[in-house]
Amino acid sequence: MIRRRTPKAFTDGIAYVCSYRKKESSFSAVKNAKSGDDLEVVCKLAFNEKSCRASDREFAESQERTLTKKIEARHCPLLKKDMGIVIDGVLYDPYNIDTDRINQVDYLYLEKARELDGWTSG
C-alpha cells in the first residue's frame, strides 16, 4: 500500500513574483522599480518564513549581500534570480534559490531593495 504525503501548508503570507518592466532613462540606463507600475506580476506564491541561520548570514556576506528574509515556498519553475519578490509592499531581490526536489519546495534568500509606492496586491 502506497502512503501519500499530505501537502505542506504555507500559511505565513503571499509573495508576488514579478518581472521588471523595461523603463529607460534619457541615456538608456534601466530605471529601478519604485512603484507597482514598474513591475508585472508573473505568479503568486504562498510561503512560510524561515529562520536565518548563522551559515545563511555568512553565505550572504560572502556574496556581498544582506540576508533580510528567508522564505520557503512550493517549487515554481518560473522563478529566476533576476525577478523581484514583493511581500507586503516591499520589493526584495532574490540572490539565491535552493530547490529541494524531493519535497518540491524552494528556499528563497531575499535582500530588501525598497518599499514600493502605491503597491496593490496582484
Describe this entry's structure for a reader.
The chain has 122 residues and is mainly beta. It contains 1 helix and 6 strands. It has one helix at 54-62, and strands spanning 13-20, 39-50, 69-74, 84-87, 90-100, 105-115. A 6-stranded antiparallel beta barrel has the order 1-2-3-6-5-4. The chain is globular. The model has no long low-confidence stretch (mean pLDDT 85).
Rg (C-alpha, Å)? 16 Å
- Count of alpha and pi helical runs: 1
Largest sheet: 6 strands, antiparallel, barrel
pLDDT < 50 runs, ≥5 residues: none
Question: How far apart are the first and last residues' alpha carbons, in Å?
Answer: 42 Å
Quick description:
With 122 residues, the chain is mostly beta strands. The chain has one helix and six strands, in the order ββαββββ.
Supply the key terms:
122 residues; mainly beta; six-stranded antiparallel β-barrel; 1 helix; 6 strands; 43% strand
Write the layout of secondary structure elements.
Layout: E1 13-20, E2 39-50, H1 54-62, E3 69-74, E4 84-87, E5 90-100, E6 105-115
Antiparallel strand pairs: 1-2, 1-4, 2-3, 3-6, 4-5, 5-6
